[in-house]
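dude i think i finally got it to work??
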Amino acid sequence: MNPRVERYRQSWRLRVPADPGETRRIESWLATARVFLAVSTLVAIRMDPTELGHSWAAYGLFVFYLANGILILMLLRRRQQSTAAFRFLVHAGDIAWPAMISVFAEGPRTPFFLFFFFVLAAAAYRWGLWETLGTAAAEAALLWIESFVVLHVWPQGSLPLRAMTGLHINVPEFEPKRLFMLSVYLIVMGLLLGYLAEQQKHLRAEKAVVTGILSRIRVEAGLTGTIEQIFNEVMTMYGASRVMIASQETHSERVFAGELSKAKESARAEFRWLESGMQNARAYLDDFPGEACYASAARGGWTTLALDSAGHQVAVTNQTTLTQLRQEQPFNTVVSVAFLFGSDWRGRVFLFDPSWRGERQEELRFLLDLVHQAGPAIYNVYLLHRLRRRASAAERARFARELHDGAVQSLIAVEMQVDVLRRQAEANLPIGAELGRIQGLLREEVLKLRELMQQMKAIDVDSQRLLGVLWDTVERFQRETGISARFVTELKELDMPQRVCREILRIVQEGLVNVRKHSGARHAMVRLSSTPERWNLTVEDDGKGFSFSGRYNAEQMGEAGKVPMIIRERVDLIGGELTVESSPGQGTRLEITVPRNGDLPHEL
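look at this
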């Protein structure tokens, strides 16, 4: 196998290295726990001095341990990171300390045995199974060394030493028969704590891998690019030679197949859709054993392992599909995982000739979880692109209708009028009035096309730019239409959300279009103001107005079928209220109020 692939797989399956910040937090928590344990020990000794005896050396060791814990905590607060050598040195001190205190605390079976447990928990918290087991073995070895010293070396020189230190040792506690069970306890505790730590790091590694793969998904890459990104990572993790995907569209039952394979060892695999698909692809989708399956060709048959959707092993009764697949796709081993994309797609992923060193059922379970978590992300990319295609198609259709009903029809009329003018010119009839009418018609269509282009153009406006953009919009409207228009505001600064800014600009643009098209006005005014509770926007003109007289809100006008729908939809998008005041023959006034702290409706 490629060494790079092997190193990569080792890093994610066995251990994902912690970042320096996380390592520093772990050491800080351990240092805090060490100080708390030392303080609690001194309180316990104060409450019951018989647990420790009356040796000044024992008290001195506890005070030294407390000072050591405080020093480590201060160093960690001042240092930006914790080095491996520093952690090893601190851990070595933690290993030696319980063995030393057990001599002064009436043997290793006193309540101060908690120090042994602390160092095992610290090893598990820092590293994993084997380091914790090694720590337990080191603790047991130190206790046996102490037992040898106490039982064979200590009696020869114990009287002078006792006189100097006032130390009394409970020799029976260091008997081999007592230390044996204590050593077994340490090893078992180390095994259990190490196993829990290893499982936690295993889960963290899996989470890191899944998060890393999902973070590579980019909507702009499209469905094909997303599949290529994800399964390139899967190929690298499992050392597979090829990846094949067979899928079926549910409503049409059409089958699609794609392949991901590397042309060179170091090259990145490219995903391509197969024109001919896979022969009997539906059989692979329906009859392949289990939700996840591992199969290896063996003499006279197959070695298989299949799991259901919950990760439980299921029996494999039909191996015919495996034989058919091998006839079409040569391989020695294959892994297959089923997937489901909403209610639209179902399929299977095939990894040919993967290689892994972990336990097969665990590897299959992880791959099944990975595909299940990546599936919705891929499906979302598929749905988003489908929605974009539909939105683009709808926009193109609207644009085509606007051109057909507006510019195209007007140009046809202009062509017909030009033909009439040509006939009049041949007959020497006056054509000045007709030319003026054609010029006006062309000017009108130019304005319509500009408005249509303005509607299609993306808007990037915020509270810093809105006032200037509104001013330019009104000025351009006056310049292009000849209608006198003003923008009035007393505001100097805005704190309006960007989404509200965008819709306010669109409302002003649509309102001015309506003034030009329908009002016959000579003057128009746009006003923007604010109060502590809301923003207020008005668009008014002196044109012919609506057919009704009075002041109506959007619901009342909707019941009458006369509400300006585009403006109402945009007002609803920002949680505002629309009011229309009309005076036939005198003009129209649109009033839009938007609450400052209102909840904006969700935007698709």
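The chain has 17 helices and 14 strands.
im so relieved honestly
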